[in-house]
Amino acid sequence: MNEGPFILCDNLVKIHKIADLEVVALQGLDLEVKQGELLGIVGASGSGKSTLLNILGGLDRPSAGRVVVGGRDLLKLSNTALTAYRRTQVGFVWQQGARNVIPYLSSLANVELPMILAGHAGGAARKRACELLDAVGLSDRRNHYLGMLSGGEQQRVAIAVALANAPSLLLADEPTGELDSNTALAIYQVFRDLCRKYGVTTLIVSHDPKIARQVDRVVAIRDGKLAGETVRRAPAVTGATKDQAVHEDHFEEYAVLDSAGRLQIPKELREQYGIKERARLEPAEAGILVKAVERQQVEQAAAEGGQTAGGAAKAEHRGVLGWLKSRRQKSRG
Ligand SMILES: Nc1ncnc2c1ncn2[C@@H]1O[C@H](COP(=O)(O)OP(=O)(O)O)[C@@H](O)[C@H]1O
Ligand SMILES: [Mg+2]
User: Fold this and answer.
1) CA of 11 to the centre of ligand 1 (A)
2) How far apart are the CA of 45 and the centre of ligand 1, in A?
3) Which of 183, 119, 180, 181 is nearest to 156 (CA)?
4) Which tens digit of pLDDT belongs to each residue from 268-281?
5) Is residue 260 part of a domain?
């Protein structure tokens, strides 16, 4: 189990069909998550975050591609096996408190319930429920009814409920969407503690880009594909003297290439540099330079190409491909 990622999505496609309408929610999404990783997923509304979580949790099936979780190829599981996978391997935390917990039961009863349903009633279940409530910081709220708890406390119970049957995967879909930012911060902290304590691979969907501070890695989804990734590096200490020392988080931001080598250039950068339908790739000292190309330039180049047709052998290729070609020719000659 140590070889390979815990989660592997390869060219995942999901098309939602409503009557005659087809909505492509995921369009060739590639993702790898390590065992025990705490991953944030951000993206605009409608970008496909919930669809991805539902597929990983076995609530929905993809239309094409591959999705493997803990060595199980989810596409190959029968309906019965997929239900068993969802019940035994996955814990869910939703945005709406009401979907997570039962209001007329106590915190303790809420956490015990999934264990009872799975046939583990009795002392062991009670012991684990107490341990989990302790782990989410609610040991003094065991006997409170859910209706008596604040929104943040209800989500803590929800997290304990999700972990009751010791899943290997914890999925949270905007768990802090209805909480103020301080409470949200505390909830992220709970996820972080539990991820470390139980080694459960945890995926948290969020609207909030600040989640990058709370998790190991954040991936951004845009239009049903992975667009970027932010990795938090060990904090660097800055400040002139020891007293002024500030622990600053350092983030590395990457653009993500899909399996075919496609790369998405963020809209802001495209606008800033006037890059539209076409770009020229030029080899540069430190990497590849992506330059704007005006439509007229393309048309002019095509017109010139037409005039010299027949002399194609002499044609000069500009850009990266031409550069690669000339390098190859040089190394041969
Ligand atoms: N059950 C469904 N039936 C039809 N369309 C859906 C369904 N679920 C999601 N969609 C559509 O798929 C796209 C992605 O939705 P979703 O995964 O919910 O995005 P997000 O969670 O990032 O807001 C949206 O265009 C949404 O309208
Ligand atoms: Mg959603």
Assistant:
1) 18
2) 9
3) 183
4) 889 999 998 889 89
5) no
pLDDT at 256: 84
Cα→Cα distances 64→14, 26, 71, 257, 260, Å: 7, 10, 18, 19, 16
297-312 b/e (C-beta count within 10 Å ≥ 16 → b): eeeeeeeeeeeeeeee
Same domain, 222 and 292: no
CA distances from 191 to 151, 203, 245, 315 (A): 16, 9, 28, 59
Q: What is the pLDDT of residue 311?
A: 47
Is 145 in the same domain as 284?
A: no
Distance, in Å, from the CA atom of 43 to the CA atom of 219, rounded to the nearest integer, reads 9
Distance 192 CA to ligand 2 centre (A): 21
Higher-pLDDT residue of 8 and 307 is 8
How buried is 194 (Cβ within 10 angstroms: 0-12 exposed, 13-18 middle, 19+ buried)?
buried
Does 31 fall in a domain?
yes
**261 occurs within a structural domain:** no
Region 136-151: what's the mean pLDDT? Answer: 93
| pTM above threshold 0.70 | yes
Q: Are residue 161 and residue 223 in the same domain, yes or no? A: yes
Residues 240, 154 share a domain: yes
**Predicted confidence (pLDDT) per residue in 270-320, tens digit:** 999 999 888 989 988 888 999 998 877 777 877 876 665 554 455 556 677
Domain count, the chain: 2
25 CB within 6 A, ligand 1: yes
Ligand 1, pocket-test mutation among 12, 17, 45, 50, most atoms within 8 A of CB = 50
Residue 315 DSSP label: P
Written as six digits, the tokens of 40 are: 């944030």
Q: Show the tokens assigned to 101.
A: 């917990």
Question: Domain residues for 216?
Answer: 7-255
* pLDDT (tens digit per residue) in 16-42: 998 889 999 999 999 999 999 999 999
